[in-house]
Input
Amino acid sequence: MYYVYVIQSEKNKKLYFGFTNNLNARLESHNNGGNKSTKFSTPWRYVYFEGYRSEKDARLREKKLKHYGNARSYIKLRIKNCL
Output
């Protein structure tokens, strides 16, 4: 299974969109400074994720979330009560 996820920094409330096949290991990596983009905003927590059977589909969805405003706005609308 492959996942597209959204994490939120507990430090500054910023959101990060990513892709993984192991949610637990990926969050641990973010919180241990293993990602250049997120290491200065730890700790992080999951606020949303979607599961995909195909790696190709998950990567395509991640790309849309990172680069297209409408997709990103839709996710933010869906999770606004969690933030």
Observations:
- The CA atoms of residues 52 and 69 lie 21 Å apart.
- The chain has one domain: 2-79.
- The mean pLDDT is 91.
